[in-house]
Amino acid sequence: MTIQEFVNVGAKTTMKIGGSARYFAEISTKEDVEEAQRFAKKKDVPLIVLGAGCNTVFADGTIDALVVQVKTSELFFMEDQVTASSGIALASLITACADHDLDLSALTGIPGTLGGAIVGNAGQGPQGTWINSFIVSVCAFVDGDWKYFEPEECDFGYRESIFKTLPHAIVWTATLRLPQKPKEKILGNVQELLEKRIASQPHRSTAGSCFKAIDGTPAWKLIDEAGLRGLTVGGIQINEKHANFLINANHGTFTDLLSLIETVRDKVPALDGIEMRLYGEDGEIVNV
Ligand SMILES: Cc1cc2nc3c(=O)[nH]c(=O)nc-3n(C[C@H](O)[C@H](O)[C@H](O)COP(=O)(O)OP(=O)(O)OC[C@H]3O[C@@H](n4cnc5c(N)ncnc54)[C@H](O)[C@@H]3O)c2cc1C
Question: Is pLDDT above 90 for 127?
Answer without folding.
Answer: no
